[in-house]
Amino acid sequence: MTTTVRCETTTLADEEMQRLRELAAQLRVDSVRASTAAGSGHPSSSLSAADLMAVLMARHLRYDWDNPDSPLNDHLIFSKGHASPLLYSMFKAAGVISDEELMNGYRRFGNWLQGHPTPALPWVDVATGSLGQGLPIAVGVALAAQCLDQLPLHLWVLCGDSEMAEGSMWEAIDKAGYYRLRNLTAIVDVNRLGQRGPTELEWDMDAYRRRFEAFDWHAVVIDGHDLHAIDEAYRQVRGIDRPTAILARTIKGKGLPQVENEASWHGKALPPDLAEKAVAELGGVRNLRVRGPLPEPGTPAGAATAGGQVTLPTYKKGDKVATRKAFGDALVALGARTDVVVLDAEVGNSTHTLDFAEKYPDRFFQMFIAEQQMVAAAVGLQVRGYRPWAATFAAFFTRAHDFIRMAAVSQADIYLAGSHVGVEIGPDGPSQMGLEDISMMRAILGSTVLYPSDAVSCAALVTQMVDREGVNYIRTTRGSYPVLYDNGESFPVGGSKQVRGSDSDDVALLGAGVTLHNCLAAADLLADAGIRARVLDLYSVKPIDREAVREAARATGGRVIVVEDHYPEGGLGEAVLSALSEQAVPVTHLAVRTLPASGNPDELLKAAGIDAIAIAETARSVAGR
Amino acid sequence: MTTTVRCETTTLADEEMQRLRELAAQLRVDSVRASTAAGSGHPSSSLSAADLMAVLMARHLRYDWDNPDSPLNDHLIFSKGHASPLLYSMFKAAGVISDEELMNGYRRFGNWLQGHPTPALPWVDVATGSLGQGLPIAVGVALAAQCLDQLPLHLWVLCGDSEMAEGSMWEAIDKAGYYRLRNLTAIVDVNRLGQRGPTELEWDMDAYRRRFEAFDWHAVVIDGHDLHAIDEAYRQVRGIDRPTAILARTIKGKGLPQVENEASWHGKALPPDLAEKAVAELGGVRNLRVRGPLPEPGTPAGAATAGGQVTLPTYKKGDKVATRKAFGDALVALGARTDVVVLDAEVGNSTHTLDFAEKYPDRFFQMFIAEQQMVAAAVGLQVRGYRPWAATFAAFFTRAHDFIRMAAVSQADIYLAGSHVGVEIGPDGPSQMGLEDISMMRAILGSTVLYPSDAVSCAALVTQMVDREGVNYIRTTRGSYPVLYDNGESFPVGGSKQVRGSDSDDVALLGAGVTLHNCLAAADLLADAGIRARVLDLYSVKPIDREAVREAARATGGRVIVVEDHYPEGGLGEAVLSALSEQAVPVTHLAVRTLPASGNPDELLKAAGIDAIAIAETARSVAGR
């Protein structure tokens, strides 16, 4: 059974209806014109949602267009980012971009009106275009607004129907239901057609409704071209104690008879002659300027600013402490800052984020086993000024790779911690071993990748990370290893530590994390054989300490060995090779090169050829002895 | 409202009940003993499902334990792979491993009874342990069995309740409903407790039921410790025209009063004294040998063997053809082999998999926009001997990274094609640009990574890929570029082509895909300036043609420039650096180093510094002129 909002008695005056009709027509006309001028884009996917967006921007979106950074504004996220012609047409209607810019800027090199929205535009919170991401990110924004800032603002998310096939959407729908995010409305533009034909559910509106309701949402089905029904649906959402899905049955290409409901028109700009005809049919170019209500006054209850004194945890040199534990300690210390929030994917007792949860439960959000949603929520929380940390096993961040990639496009500032790395974890076996995480994180544009070997450096790096921009990643180790450094030592990002060495070293051993400890043990073995080893702690994998690496190569006559508990591609070894790329230095690279299995850490490090004995043997060979 | 199967009149004779009770007790006892002997593992998560698995293996799983490779067998997949003690205890009960091996092998180095199941064991189809993967993979197996092989076998998937938070599970549930996989049963072990505390839904069985039903499954709620109810639920599933979810309310640690329903016992082996007491309470060690029914006789209707003559498409040298188009052509050619199947994530008109769909609709499966499910289905299809190809935009394979990673642990043979790579795609902007895919795919253990520059080499590589083992990836380009090679030329995986050069070259330009064309154009510019450039087509990124790269370095006196339309980390450049790591050769590396935006391809290649002019300028500088 389908519940449809029917407006038996209209609440919109004729004049207002006329304004909305005109606005919707303008959004259609401009969507067609902009994409035709660009020669590419998605007019048909814009036209299906034009009525939905016209009513929203004119009557329900509480937004101060002159002050897009105001924390009081509603948020509008186009999860279906390919409908950018519609979004940018709304910006023209709001008067924040000109018609000329829309016509000459869309999809053009050097202009901010890109093919898919990015926060290069001040009215855009996050980059979309990889489908299935806008709603999960909105859940993070909604959590911040409802649970931390406690403001009456509302989240409006325009979703495509095709993207409802992405599991990430159901992670978001699940979490929004779980947290009863009453400030969140998903507007699903059910236009029946995906890129290459009909969607899975086509116009089975009742199926959509049952699915949302099963995840504890309020769901309402409307005709997405009935301005009254749209208005009434929007009007109701603020009074509902749960998230609302407005399931709008729409027609792709609505308004253009030759395009309407035609599968072949996905993602195609109209040719100029057809576009001209279409614009004429839609009543020609308009230059309406429409703004809706301003946000309610208020003050965020959350304090998304750095406040509070952070006191680093301290450790005793030689004590065995796991870096994952030190990470938890440092996170608790960071908790003194009220902008720090923490997200877990149901492994907080392993990653030690639960240490934070115990002390700061209000700034801790459990995402259960939903890594995509965890990272998306982090991106959403930083939209509202928080410093979100998200932690899971390093291997399981691969689940959220696309979200991390897109976070970089959003130029989001997020903080990720991956534990249980490499074969070092032992008996659990390869499914739980992070062996490609450095590669994944290094290849994120503008990222920082840190991999401390001991508790002191780990805590120091966590404290620095929180003030950095972009995607920041710290890799922590499962097992406990000796504290190497004195409390208070400095570990600048981009630096390194020479933990062993002299002015006349025979060979350089470069490691990080567990392999640094193995390098140190190898250096002891080598010393017994009269070979002097320089040992370098490359705790900063990206940016890497290029100078120290080069100096180690120079000082040892080019006898460099790099050792990592990671697959050989894209990890510490290749970072070192890149640092030395313009030098003529041979590098010997020890890494995990066969499929690991279960065993104890020593057995597995030995089998991978990255234990102290393997390192020492390699060094002897490199040193020619 | 909860539907509960109630067995008012028992259909199980007392004797059979006694056998099942004994078997369940044995599985419990052995799960405790094995994990205690190993000193780690998940006994509590095994005990909750012991009754479910006892009834399944004794009465419903149609499986020839002496012939695990039989295509007629039912499949049993532990999506909750951490319950491996239970699975291995079942293997003991079936008589395929000994009690001694279970006690001394579990989680031990060199033994196949790893912490999480892998197909090193002949009774295991795929590796699990990254939660949320077993059910999506099972959908692929079920598609093969139902739609291709058309056999009456059944898929039984033991799922955890915690993993129901993974979006990938809902992608699987959605697709199983869409394809009406009546041969698929998900047994959800709702034991209420996750790793660090209660699950989202705890024992809200009705919520689970509503969710499955909303996705068009048959769902039934049972007491997961009531042997009659379990038996009756299993008995019914084969008669239902849809996938069935058996939602079993269970108690974690069931059978051990001190462990039952206690959050603190997740993932912990019992200490030996407690284990001894527990075993005694459960009635002591048993050595029951229990096997259930054998599979029905039959013959697979699908022919998962290489048959049919593949005739490569041909192209005219100099014609402009996109490699994504050549990929589609080659896939159609491969279609002559009846083991070739193709999966799409709703972009088949862009990746050109729809060309295959038109000719071979029965071997084409639309997964809609669900990249995790697409890759999981590929893994499932290869379980039954097919050669599955899955294609989407290269950037969107990041969505499935964890599934690709686990495919390597499964030692699965799958074939992935990523289109729309690099800034070359132009106006759509960075959300659609594959700029980290080479890095991701290189770091998959045992992977093959290919990146052809023209149509002839692309088709030749596709044809070779299909007979390779492991995870195979081909990267195709959006735009059309000249055909460079003669039809019939050979492009061995691991090889390269010198497309320009002599015995006395001044500089070596190494490229692949679009940058190879830019290298060729740069070589023309350099020739005008009297600089002789050798140009190498590194179409095989992994394995790379180490010898050719080294020879190019040697021949040019170490003046090597590598150019890629990809971020600098983990891609072609670092592959070249690794190939040269033990030589002392400087390498100049041109790659995409800033966030791209929209524009036309030429503008974006220029802005990234990887167009012909930038390459030529760099070469002049490297050559010192």
Automatic annotation (TrEMBL), chains A, B:
SUPFAM superfamilies with a match to the protein in the record: Thiamin diphosphate-binding fold (THDP-binding) (SSF52518), TK C-terminal domain-like (SSF52922)
Pfam families named in the record: Transket_pyr (PF02779), Transketolase_C (PF02780), Transketolase_N (PF00456)
Domain Transketolase-like pyrimidine-binding: 321-483
Domain of life assignment: Bacteria
GO MF term (any one): transketolase activity
Gene3D superfamilies (alphabetical): 3.40.50.920, 3.40.50.970
The protein's assembly and partners: Homodimer.
UniProt-recorded name of the protein: Transketolase
Organism: Planosporangium flavigriseum
